[in-house]
Amino acid sequence: MRHIMKGIPLLGIFFILVAFTSASREPVGKITFPLNRVFVIPEGTSDLKMAYFNMDVFSGDKIETKRESRCEITLTNGDVVRIDENSLYTLEDIEVTQETVKASSFLSVGKLWATIRKIFTEDDYVAVKSPTAVIAVRGTIYRVDVAEDSMTTLRVYDGEVEVKPAAAGIGKLQQSKPERTGPIGPPRDVPGPRDVAGPRDVSEAQWIEIVKAQQQIRISSDGKFEKSDFDLIDDAKSDWVQWNKQRDELLNR
After folding, report:
1. Distance of CA 249 to CAs 53, 68, 175, 246, Å?
2. Are 163 and 137 in contact (CB under 8 A)?
3. Is the pTM higher than 0.85?
4. Among 18, 71, 92, 175, fewest CB within 10 Å belongs to which?
């Protein structure tokens, strides 16, 4: 009995520390549009919590969407990420304030749309990873599709992004100056098709590609990639694209 009584204060201290640690975590954003069956899996657990409007999300959380479901996440600095049905997205390591953004996330499978309109300092970064690629941005509108076989397709609507193989890691963004200093407007038509290099057979750690507006890049599971233009008119027929453009317009993006 004495051993049990001695253990009670220690147990109480343990639970106080756990409660304090949980309470001290700051949310990195909110669920601003949960559609149908959207679940949040808190870091370190396998619990599926049904998402609700204005639900806080934290660094390390996973967001999972089931069939015929979608989710919009708004970070605390106003940047927006949306995921389509049958997607699994992890907020791996996120530090977001009005002054700084250091964000690394992972799309395991499914579709993602991102509207990143902030211009960052040289020390800040936003990176979305897939099983085959790392996509780094400074301010742009783009979408990423990750298939069951890990094939990753990126399409850029505004601005430009840096893409490299997943094996290369995040690293530091190129220090080129952004093309614009104001907020990014809605997707727009750009000049006609350009000659773009076809498939390349290179080692995983060698290539880095800059993908600009109206360009796409596909990275296969073996690390090979192919970059080309895509047709904005044909792309706009997608219900996923239409919904995101409507949401961006509603939010004045």
Report:
1. 20, 22, 30, 5
2. no
3. no
4. 175
3-state secondary structure of 248: helix
Beta bridge partners of 216: 155, 228
Amino acid at 211: V
* pLDDT the model gives residue 122: 75
**pLDDT tens digits for range 96-146:** 877 788 899 999 999 999 998 766 677 788 899 999 999 998 788 999 999
- The structural domains of the chain, ordered by start, are 29-250 (2.60.120.1440)
Question: Does residue 5 carry a pLDDT above 60?
Answer: no
CB 39 within 8 A of CB 70: no
pLDDT score for 170: 62
Do 52 and 31 contact (CB within 8 A), yes or no? yes
Residue appearing with tokens 């399409």: 155
In sequence order, what DSSP letters do the residues of 57-124 get, joined into one string?
E-TT-EEEE-TT-EEEEEETTS-EEEE-SSEEEEEEEEEE-SS-EEEEEEEEEEEEEEEE-PPPPTT-
